[in-house]
Amino acid sequence: MEWHVFDVLSMIGTVAFAVSGAVVAMEEEYDVLGVFVLGLVTAFGGGIVRNLLIGVPVTTLWSQKSLLTAAIISIAVVFVLPVAWIRHWRRSETFFDAIGLSAFAVQGALYATQQNHALPAVVVAAMLTGIGGGMIRDLLAGRKPLVLREEIYAVWAMGAGLVIGLGWADSTSEYLVLFTAVVACRMLSAHYKWRLPRRSLRHAFAESVHAVRPVPDGGENRKQSESEGADPS
Fold first, then answer.
1. Where is each Glycine transporter domain found (predicted)?
2. Global pTM value
């Protein structure tokens, strides 16, 4: 039954992130090939990075025919959708992104536990699977990755990995509850603008640069101008 949940979560996350990548590509005015490339990278980028780190061959991607097919169909549908529908997607973008984050975080944690990895690896696998595709998408699109902003994002994926790694969720119903909880937490953090602590040095550096900047001597410049303009006779 766990494999059934694993497959369902994989499908949900793949479709959600494939659509997300396609929409971002169209916002950046990519051609049709760029739309498909960015959509596929968003859908599978997190899983590829995770596999590289936990020692699973990346070639397993090509055996996921159903996921590849679902991603390609999703991207194609989004590409031909009316603009009004895509605008509606933009209003719901955070929700679908939360679904993809949660689905892939739980899926990544389950994948790591099935490989008998330790708790830290399970948490990292959940985080990378959940945020990896979106991070690669934003970098390729020239945007600041969402995970690098102060918004709480990756923390929820790490929390899912921690719950599964500690064995607090080990049944189908508990996985679904965890999936729903991560989606809810992500939506709440976006709605109420919960932020992680941050420390900015931008103003401090700006003040120090301003303090050491040399100030032109107006007197010397004025004397030099007067001497140059004086009559040599």
1. 8-81, 95-164
2. 0.79
